[in-house]
Amino acid sequence: MIEDKERWNIRYKEKPFRDYVEPIIEKYIDLANKGRALDIACGQGRNTHFIAEKGFEVDAVDLSDYALSCVRDEPNIHKIEADLDEYNLEKNKYDLVVNMNYLNRRFYHQIKEALKPDGLVIFETFIIAHGDFDNPQNPEYLLRKNELLHTFISLDIIYYEEHDDINLRGEKTRVASLVAQKRSC
């Protein structure tokens, strides 16, 4: 964990990430009930800040203490420094769960369980791509084709797409995007 933390601290300091909100969050956030939100691997808070401004109380979780120091100190933002390989989500806690540019398959089931009835998940990350793409090289951090869709198929799928995109550093990538809602039954 210390090694990962140091690596991410250096990465955030040396290679600034873009600071605008992910378009998928802007487009779909209003479908979520106002209440508690979770931003998994929140980084420097670009999405966290937007979610909080929309009226949510946000748990912003990241391994990097440097990145978390860039997240604004506000009463409705709760910064949580945690190793995401060990962190567990509380059941039935969140009206909104956001997971951007991060993949930890052990969270799949936990995200579904962490959602309250009618809770919304917005999930977007890299998929395996061949050719001239700058996705992470480790397959552990890459989705397979339709993996995200199949993982969350028990929820009501509002939007799903696999498409070419530009990553946080301006490089060509391939991503999967999903918006789904937990049934209230």
TrEMBL record:
<dbReference type="InterPro" id="IPR029063">
    <property type="entry name" value="SAM-dependent_MTases_sf"/>
</dbReference>
<protein>
    <submittedName>
        <fullName>Class I SAM-dependent methyltransferase</fullName>
    </submittedName>
</protein>
<dbReference type="GO" id="GO:0008168">
    <property type="term" value="F:methyltransferase activity"/>
</dbReference>
<feature type="domain" description="Methyltransferase">
    <location>
        <begin position="38"/>
        <end position="119"/>
    </location>
</feature>
<dbReference type="InterPro" id="IPR041698">
    <property type="entry name" value="Methyltransf_25"/>
</dbReference>
<keyword id="KW-0808">Transferase</keyword>
<keyword id="KW-0489">Methyltransferase</keyword>
<dbReference type="GO" id="GO:0032259">
    <property type="term" value="P:methylation"/>
</dbReference>
<dbReference type="Pfam" id="PF13649">
    <property type="entry name" value="Methyltransf_25"/>
</dbReference>
